[in-house]
Amino acid sequence: MKDDDVGDPMDQSAALSEVMAVKGIIQDQHPVDFYALGVAGCIDRLAAPLRRAGVTVHWHTPHHGIEISSSAAALLYHVAQEAFSNTLNYAGASELTIRLNAVYHGIQLTITDDGSGFEIHAAPSGRRHGFGLLMMSIAVHDAGGTVDIDSEVGRGTSVRVTLPLD
Predict the structure, then answer these.
(1) With contact defined as beta carbons under 8 Å apart, do 97 and 58 qualify?
(2) Which helix (H) or strand (E) holds 76?
Protein backbone atom coordinates (compact mmCIF):
# COMPACT_ATOMS: atom_id res chain seq x y z
CA MET A 1 0.00 0.00 0.00
CA LYS A 2 1.38 3.37 -0.96
CA ASP A 3 0.94 6.72 0.77
CA ASP A 4 -2.64 8.03 0.77
CA ASP A 5 -3.90 4.85 -0.96
CA VAL A 6 -6.36 2.73 0.96
CA GLY A 7 -8.55 1.52 -1.88
CA ASP A 8 -10.95 3.00 -4.36
CA PRO A 9 -13.20 5.57 -2.61
CA MET A 10 -16.08 4.72 -4.96
CA ASP A 11 -15.98 1.07 -3.86
CA GLN A 12 -15.99 2.10 -0.22
CA SER A 13 -18.70 4.80 -0.35
CA ALA A 14 -21.62 2.62 0.74
CA ALA A 15 -19.60 0.91 3.45
CA LEU A 16 -18.20 4.19 4.77
CA SER A 17 -21.68 5.60 5.28
CA GLU A 18 -22.15 2.83 7.83
CA VAL A 19 -19.35 4.25 9.97
CA MET A 20 -20.66 7.08 12.12
CA ALA A 21 -20.18 8.98 15.34
CA VAL A 22 -22.76 7.98 17.94
CA LYS A 23 -22.73 10.17 21.05
CA GLY A 24 -19.25 11.31 20.05
CA ILE A 25 -17.78 7.82 19.63
CA ILE A 26 -16.89 6.64 16.13
CA GLN A 27 -18.50 3.28 15.48
CA ASP A 28 -18.61 0.86 12.57
CA GLN A 29 -22.07 -0.66 12.20
CA HIS A 30 -20.65 -3.87 10.70
CA PRO A 31 -18.26 -6.43 12.17
CA VAL A 32 -14.60 -5.64 11.57
CA ASP A 33 -13.07 -7.93 8.93
CA PHE A 34 -9.28 -7.70 9.25
CA TYR A 35 -8.87 -10.62 6.88
CA ALA A 36 -10.70 -8.96 3.98
CA LEU A 37 -9.67 -5.32 4.53
CA GLY A 38 -6.43 -5.60 6.47
CA VAL A 39 -5.66 -3.46 9.50
CA ALA A 40 -5.14 -0.30 7.44
CA GLY A 41 -8.40 -0.78 5.57
CA CYS A 42 -10.37 -1.30 8.76
CA ILE A 43 -8.78 1.71 10.41
CA ASP A 44 -9.39 3.79 7.29
CA ARG A 45 -13.12 2.98 7.47
CA LEU A 46 -13.15 4.60 10.92
CA ALA A 47 -11.93 7.87 9.40
CA ALA A 48 -15.17 8.32 7.40
CA PRO A 49 -16.84 10.64 9.97
CA LEU A 50 -13.69 12.78 10.03
CA ARG A 51 -13.71 13.06 6.24
CA ARG A 52 -17.40 13.99 6.29
CA ALA A 53 -16.53 16.71 8.84
CA GLY A 54 -13.97 18.14 6.39
CA VAL A 55 -10.80 16.67 7.88
CA THR A 56 -8.20 15.68 5.28
CA VAL A 57 -6.81 12.23 6.08
CA HIS A 58 -3.29 11.27 4.97
CA TRP A 59 -1.92 7.71 5.10
CA HIS A 60 1.71 6.63 5.23
CA THR A 61 2.20 2.86 5.19
CA PRO A 62 5.72 2.15 3.95
CA HIS A 63 5.48 -1.50 4.98
CA HIS A 64 2.58 -3.69 4.06
CA GLY A 65 1.77 -7.35 4.15
CA ILE A 66 2.98 -7.75 7.72
CA GLU A 67 1.18 -10.54 9.49
CA ILE A 68 -0.06 -9.57 12.92
CA SER A 69 -2.27 -11.42 15.34
CA SER A 70 -5.98 -10.70 15.44
CA SER A 71 -5.61 -9.41 19.00
CA ALA A 72 -2.91 -6.91 17.93
CA ALA A 73 -5.03 -5.85 14.95
CA ALA A 74 -8.07 -5.36 17.20
CA LEU A 75 -6.05 -3.32 19.68
CA LEU A 76 -4.66 -1.04 16.93
CA TYR A 77 -8.20 -0.64 15.60
CA HIS A 78 -9.51 0.40 19.03
CA VAL A 79 -6.61 2.81 19.52
CA ALA A 80 -7.50 4.44 16.20
CA GLN A 81 -11.17 4.52 17.20
CA GLU A 82 -10.34 6.42 20.40
CA ALA A 83 -7.88 8.79 18.73
CA PHE A 84 -10.29 9.53 15.86
CA SER A 85 -13.18 10.12 18.28
CA ASN A 86 -11.06 12.58 20.24
CA THR A 87 -10.01 14.35 17.04
CA LEU A 88 -13.62 14.60 15.90
CA ASN A 89 -14.99 15.79 19.27
CA TYR A 90 -12.28 18.03 20.68
CA ALA A 91 -9.46 18.89 18.29
CA GLY A 92 -11.04 21.03 15.61
CA ALA A 93 -8.41 19.57 13.28
CA SER A 94 -8.24 20.13 9.54
CA GLU A 95 -5.69 17.36 8.87
CA LEU A 96 -5.01 13.92 10.31
CA THR A 97 -2.03 11.76 9.44
CA ILE A 98 -1.97 8.01 10.07
CA ARG A 99 1.26 6.02 9.92
CA LEU A 100 1.41 2.25 10.17
CA ASN A 101 5.01 1.05 10.29
CA ALA A 102 6.93 -2.10 10.97
CA VAL A 103 9.48 -1.51 13.71
CA TYR A 104 12.03 -3.83 15.26
CA HIS A 105 9.97 -6.85 16.41
CA GLY A 106 6.77 -4.87 16.33
CA ILE A 107 4.18 -2.73 14.64
CA GLN A 108 3.67 0.96 15.27
CA LEU A 109 0.59 3.08 14.68
CA THR A 110 0.97 6.85 14.87
CA ILE A 111 -2.01 9.18 14.57
CA THR A 112 -1.29 12.91 14.42
CA ASP A 113 -3.73 15.79 14.07
CA ASP A 114 -3.21 19.52 13.61
CA GLY A 115 -5.97 20.42 16.05
CA SER A 116 -6.13 22.48 19.21
CA GLY A 117 -4.11 20.05 21.35
CA PHE A 118 -4.35 19.87 25.11
CA GLU A 119 -2.22 20.13 28.22
CA ILE A 120 -1.29 16.51 28.96
CA HIS A 121 -0.50 17.03 32.63
CA ALA A 122 -3.49 19.26 33.42
CA ALA A 123 -6.19 17.83 35.64
CA PRO A 124 -9.20 16.66 33.61
CA SER A 125 -11.93 19.28 33.52
CA GLY A 126 -14.74 16.78 33.47
CA ARG A 127 -15.55 13.42 34.90
CA ARG A 128 -15.20 11.63 31.53
CA HIS A 129 -12.32 13.54 29.95
CA GLY A 130 -9.17 11.48 29.54
CA PHE A 131 -10.83 8.19 30.47
CA GLY A 132 -10.59 6.79 26.93
CA LEU A 133 -6.89 7.62 26.69
CA LEU A 134 -6.30 6.01 30.08
CA MET A 135 -8.13 2.82 29.13
CA MET A 136 -6.28 2.72 25.80
CA SER A 137 -2.94 3.03 27.61
CA ILE A 138 -3.81 0.24 30.05
CA ALA A 139 -4.86 -2.11 27.22
CA VAL A 140 -1.68 -1.42 25.23
CA HIS A 141 0.56 -1.89 28.27
CA ASP A 142 -1.26 -5.14 29.14
CA ALA A 143 -0.41 -6.37 25.62
CA GLY A 144 3.28 -5.59 26.19
CA GLY A 145 3.23 -2.43 24.11
CA THR A 146 3.98 1.22 24.65
CA VAL A 147 1.93 4.39 24.26
CA ASP A 148 3.35 7.86 23.70
CA ILE A 149 0.97 10.81 23.66
CA ASP A 150 2.39 14.17 22.69
CA SER A 151 0.19 17.24 22.73
CA GLU A 152 0.50 20.94 23.28
CA VAL A 153 -2.22 23.55 23.31
CA GLY A 154 -2.45 25.06 19.83
CA ARG A 155 -0.10 22.49 18.27
CA GLY A 156 -2.17 19.34 17.83
CA THR A 157 -1.86 15.86 19.23
CA SER A 158 0.10 12.74 18.33
CA VAL A 159 -0.68 9.26 19.65
CA ARG A 160 1.94 6.57 18.98
CA VAL A 161 1.35 2.94 19.91
CA THR A 162 3.94 0.23 19.46
CA LEU A 163 2.99 -3.44 19.88
CA PRO A 164 5.34 -6.42 19.90
CA LEU A 165 4.90 -9.04 17.19
CA ASP A 166 6.83 -11.77 18.96
Answers:
(1) yes
(2) helix 70-86
pLDDT tens by residue, 86-145: 999 889 999 999 999 999 889 999 999 999 998 877 645 554 556 788 889 999 999 999
pTM for the whole structure: 0.80
**How far apart, in whole angstroms, are the C-alpha atoms of residue 3 and residue 23?**
31
For 78-122, the three-class secondary structure string (H helix, E strand, C coil) is HHHHHHHHHHHHHHCCCEEEEEEEEECCEEEEEEEECCCCCCCCC
Strands 95-103 and 56-60: parallel
In what side-by-side order are the strands of the sheet with 95-103? 56-60, 95-103, 106-113, 157-164, 146-151
Show me where the domains of the chain are located.
Answer: 9-164
Helix (H) or strand (E) run with residue 57 in it: strand 56-60
Domain 9-164: which CATH class?
Answer: alpha beta
